[in-house]
Amino acid sequence: MKRQARTFHSILVTATGIALSCAATASLADVPQAVTITTQVVFNPDANGTFVATGPICSTGTLSTVRAVIGPGPNVNALASFTCDDNSGSFILRLHPQFNARPKEDGFDANGPWSVWGKGGTGKFKGLTGHGDFGVVVDEHEDPLAATETYVGFVTLK
Q1: How far is CA 25 from the centre of its chain?
Q2: How far apart are alpha carbons 14 and 130 in whole angstroms?
Q3: Contacts of 10 (CB under 8 A, 6+ apart)
Q4: Tens digit of pLDDT for each residue in 15-70?
Q5: Residue 152: CB atoms within 10 Å
Q6: How far apart are CA 158 and CA 150, in angstroms?
Q7: Residue-wise pLDDT tens digits, 88-146
Q8: Residue 121 vs residues 88, 93, 130, 143, 155: alpha-carbon distances, Å
């Protein structure tokens, strides 16, 4: 009987260890992770282009404007869709750029906050959340206008 008790105890200890390990792994998915996205876009008339990224999202993909509303000031409220080249999914970022007077503030023609829009995206990014800041440098010598955008912040994959 003592041997059966020891075997049961060993199995119980092993199962508990595995369960705790899985719980720790699941909780790491909820920790915000740094992300950087750099885009190359053309405004014709909306922003469309490509991106490269670091962090817990895909490394490359395409982006397109979903909606851009320009109000007084000009106050811009835009949605940009990011679709991954590796077919892992897509997500939408909400942008609030503020246009800077000359000379450029912090080297950007426009900058402002971004946040993941809605309830994440598709595929791997279904539960994506996050926010940060972005800046835009416009190449005014291109026709149509071209720009480089840099997004920095934190995202959480759930």
Answers
A1: 21
A2: 36
A3: none
A4: 444 444 444 444 556 899 999 999 999 988 888 999 999 999 999 999 999 988 87
A5: 16
A6: 24
A7: 999 999 999 887 766 565 688 889 999 999 888 999 999 999 999 999 998 988 899 99
A8: 10, 10, 12, 32, 12
pTM, two decimals, is: 0.77
Collapsed DSSP state (helix, strand, coil) of residue 130: strand
* Cβ neighbours of 101 (radius 10 Å): 6
Query: What's the residue count for the chain?
Result: 158
Structure tokens at 113: 């906050």
In whole angstroms, what is the distance from residue 151 CA to residue 111 CA? 10
